[in-house]
Amino acid sequence: MTALLWLGAAGLMLFVLTFLIDGATRPGYRPVRHPVSALALGGRGWVQAVNFVLCGALVTAGAVGLLATSAGWLAAPVGCLGLGLVASGLFPMDPVRGYPPGTPEGDPEVLSRTHQLHDAAGAVVFLAMPVSAFVGALVLDGAAWRIGSAAVGVLLLVLNHLFTRAWTEDWPRTGLVQRATIITAWAWLAWTFVHLAGGHAVSLPGLDG
């Protein structure tokens, strides 16, 4: 089960590395303004779509691995996060706000069913982020981990609020706010996976391996 925790951590790190490199090299894409999900559009859109699904699958595997640790209660919110990422890759958003190139700067008057499903999946992901941190504050061993996880949960609530405002009001730095939110959550969860994989796992009947 320890291997599943390492897979979860690897998936999170690969996700961030992929969207940073792809966003920096994609013609017409502006990382400071455009959301990560917009990378799933256009000719290279398959890269981010696969990134969503692969990261989601690995995070879900990591959630299964959490069941064999002293922090087993974390498995539920982390599993929801992973499945939300998979759905985000399967249901891409509509072209919006100038991307892909040639798309009008505003939002479409009518959003497709696929976009609506993407939004629902995103809501699950962004809710699961602070919930996971707050659950971590309750179940992780050690004062430092509990206090740190609680602080991350509060920070993620603030960042989620800022991202919601940024997206609704079309701030010119919407993408930057979203990236700060994702990287904060991913860093905490990846480090939690690594921490629990590094000798803090416990054996549960039927879950050894």
UniProtKB/TrEMBL annotation:
This protein's UniProt keywords: Membrane, Transmembrane, Transmembrane helix
Record flagged with keyword Lipid biosynthesis: no
Pfam family, one: DUF998
Transmembrane domains' residue ranges: 47-67, 74-93, 120-140, 147-164, 176-194
Domain of life (superkingdom): Bacteria
Protein name (database record): DUF998 domain-containing protein
Organism expressing this protein natively: Georgenia alba
Organism ancestry: Bacteria, Bacillati, Actinomycetota, Actinomycetes, Micrococcales
